[in-house]
Write a structure and sequence with these properties.
The structure is a single chain. The protein is mainly α. It contains six helices and no strands. The longest helix is centred in the middle third of the chain and has 36 residues. It has one domain. Helix content is about 75%, strand content about 0%.
């Protein structure tokens, strides 16, 4: 299950990376055009939208790749079993918070859809084009967090503490440099 989730999120990360590359290309073209006395206009707005969407979708990838920052000073002195339970507590807390963010994002999108809102900018971007993938990214992150929590809980209950640590643990800086 974890390998499937990691593979799925790698594809999502590649799509987000492609989105960032396209955005960087647009900004590059705009910079060159500015040197020539012209401009595409709105690249700052577009790059902000891309950053919001990319961040929302990229969080699940970071979670499954153990790239989120955690303070692990308590784990250093704990047994393998206690570390697994502390990791589960951290993942549970993250899952709850991300779910709350996703739930609180829905009213923003709902209002946009109801009102047909557009950005208060020269581009007048229909905000639903930005907020739908942004909201979907938060929902995806919450779903991945809860799936990872369930799988990790199952491993921990079965006593597979090393596997749990590999799935949701943290790595000390000296271990990552090897």
């Amino acid at each position: 299950m974890l390998n499937f989730l990691r593979t799925l999120n790698r594809y999502v990360a590649m799509a987000v990376g492609l989105l960032f590359l396209v955005c960087a290309g647009i900004v590059l073209v705009d910079v060159i055009l500015r040197r020539l006395g012209s401009s595409l206009g709105g690249t700052d707005e577009i790059s902000g939208y891309v950053m919001a969407i990319g961040t929302a979708w990229g969080m699940a990838f970071a979670l499954l790749e153990l790239a989120h920052v955690r303070i692990d000073f308590l784990r250093t002195y704990a047994t393998q079993a206690i570390r697994a339970w502390l990791d589960l507590l951290a993942l549970f807390s993250l899952s709850v918070v991300v779910t709350l963010v996703a739930f609180q994002s829905w009213p923003v999108l709902r209002t946009t859809l109801k009102n047909g809102s557009t950005a208060n900018t020269p581009l007048e971007t229909p905000l639903m084009l930005v907020q739908i993938p942004w909201f979907a990214g938060w929902v995806w992150f919450a779903l991945m967090a809860w799936l990872l929590f369930m799988v990790s809980t199952w491993m921990t209950v079965k006593g597979e503490f090393l596997e749990t640590e590999k799935a949701i643990g943290v790595f000390a800086e000296h271990e990552s440099l090897k």
